[in-house]
């Protein structure tokens, strides 16, 4: 970031950030409503697993190509058109609900399309942040983002639980369309800095050039051994933890015998934890070595997941407490990872590197959904959570013993291509 951009970074960033807060609220609202609709209509772990599966496919299969395009295109325009794309297809689903013709596959299709739009939007926002925010503030901004997600995680489920008794599903979807338009509006009146292009260097043309750009992003990551190890660890954590979160509605309804209000309460407690963790990270900034903050968070998640796993049907509040601790540990784990990447990856390649890591980290989640559904129906959702807790503990201890990972923030740890 050059000196001319330093003075006004807060105004530009927070105007955009405020608009995104509205969009996130609408997305969380609709996500809760759709998942609750599937839960009430089917009561099937396999259906919820498939919903998560289709929503993750764009991130896993095409995110690296999206990153290459983001590095070529104007990131501000990418964000605008991605939001319009999502809002347009959400409108389609609203019409289907209005006509009372909705089927499960319709929801799968819209979840896939919404995820596709998000796969363009969020890497564009993430890679733009490092061009708007000074490097020494990136960890705090990550903490603020986690806090925002926590606040919205409280407001959206509680609001959705109330509105589900008042509005039809098409009304819920209309709220998401409105918040998307609110998010787009600030992007029309501010200028987001773009990475400086090397003069005389023209991007490779065609599909072959796009594939070549993707390979460059992967080569960059492969040469950064510490980040590659962290990506593999995150991939394994996602495999273990994501099914537990996906099956939370079934845990609440089937194991604890509760309803939508209690489900919203569990998600609210999780979000309160995220708020507390995000505030702590934004104020504290984490350990001087950011990787130590992340690994501490992983160990904390192992403990909190175990609390949820051992809770008996009469111990709903214990499970809720475990969710709160898990929420607290999420910003502590994830915030420093984003800060490390934003601080150490060159702006002109951030789109590719961010989407490559996101793609690799998410690669095992669809597999975990396919594996976890039959396993959870065999050993129970609590059984899966117990396995996840033990796995997190092993991964956390192992990471402390990997020198390349512990040295990930050393600029010399990245080999040049």
Ordered list of secondary-structure elements with their pairings:
Layout: H1 3-6, H2 9-42, H3 45-61, H4 63-72, H5 75-98, H6 104-132, H7 138-163, H8 169-187, H9 206-223, H10 225-246, H11 248-255, H12 260-284, H13 290-310, H14 316-344, H15 350-362, H16 364-379, H17 381-400, H18 403-406
Helix pairs in contact: 2-3, 2-6, 2-7, 2-8, 3-6, 3-15, 3-16, 4-6, 4-9, 4-15, 5-6, 5-8, 6-15, 7-12, 7-14, 9-15, 10-15, 10-16, 10-17, 12-14, 13-14, 13-17, 16-17
CATH superfamily: MFS general substrate transporter like domains
Return the average pLDDT rounded to an integer.
Answer: 80
How many strands, which pairing sense, and closed or not: the largest β-sheet? Answer: none
CATH topology: Growth Hormone, Chain: A
Q: Helical segment tally? A: 18
- Write down the overall geometry: globular
Content of β-strand:
under 5%
Q: Would you identify the CATH architecture?
A: Up-down Bundle
Percent helix, as a range, is over 70%
Short description:
The protein has 18 helices and no strands. Helix 6 packs antiparallel against helix 15.
């Amino acid at each position: 970031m050059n000196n001319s951009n330093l003075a006004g970074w807060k105004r530009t960033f927070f105007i955009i950030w405020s608009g995104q807060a509205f969009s996130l609220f609408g997305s969380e609202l609709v996500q809760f409503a759709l998942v609750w609709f599937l839960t009430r209509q089917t009561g099937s772990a396999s259906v919820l697993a498939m919903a998560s599966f289709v929503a993750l496919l764009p991130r896993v299969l095409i995110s690296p190509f999206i990153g290459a395009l983001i590095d070529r295109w104007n990131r501000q325009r990418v964000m605008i058109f991605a939001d319009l794309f999502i809002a347009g297809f959400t409108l389609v689903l609203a019409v289907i609900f209005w006509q009372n013709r909705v089927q499960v596959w319709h929801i799968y299709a819209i979840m896939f399309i919404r995820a596709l739009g998000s796969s363009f939007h969020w890497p564009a926002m993430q890679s733009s942040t490092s061009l708007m925010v000074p490097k020494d503030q990136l960890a705090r901004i990550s903490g603020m983002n986690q806090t925002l997600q926590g606040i919205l995680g409280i407001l959206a489920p509680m609001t959705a639980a109330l509105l589900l008794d008042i509005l039809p599903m098409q009304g819920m979807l209309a709220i998401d369309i409105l918040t998307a338009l609110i998010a787009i509006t600030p992007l029309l009146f501010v200028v987001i800095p773009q990475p400086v292009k090397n003069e005389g260097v023209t991007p490779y043309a065609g599909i072959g050039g796009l594939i070549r750009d993707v390979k460059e992003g992967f080569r960059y990551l492969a040469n950064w051994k510490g980040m590659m190890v962290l990506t593999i660890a995150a991939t394994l954590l996602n495999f273990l933890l994501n099914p537990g979160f996906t099956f939370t509605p079934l845990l609440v309804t089937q194991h604890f015998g509760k309803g939508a209000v209690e489900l919203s309460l569990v998600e609210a407690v999780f979000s309160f934890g995220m708020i507390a963790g995000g505030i702590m990270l934004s104020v504290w900034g984490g350990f001087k070595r950011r990787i130590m903050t992340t690994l501490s968070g992983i160990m904390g998640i192992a403990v909190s997941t175990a609390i949820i796993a051992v809770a008996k049907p009469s111990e709903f509040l214990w499970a809720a407490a475990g969710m709160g601790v898990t929420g607290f540990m999420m910003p502590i784990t994830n915030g420093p990872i984003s800060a490390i990447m934003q601080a150490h990856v060159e702006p002109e390649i951030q789109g590719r590197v961010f989407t490559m890591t996101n793609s690799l980290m998410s690669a095992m989640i669809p597999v975990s959904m396919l594996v976890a559904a039959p396993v959870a129906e065999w050993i129970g959702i609590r059984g899966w959570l117990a396995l996840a807790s033990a796995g997190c503990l092993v991964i956390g201890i192992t990471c402390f013993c990997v020198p390349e990972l512990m040295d990930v923030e050393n600029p010399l740890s990245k080999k040049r291509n």
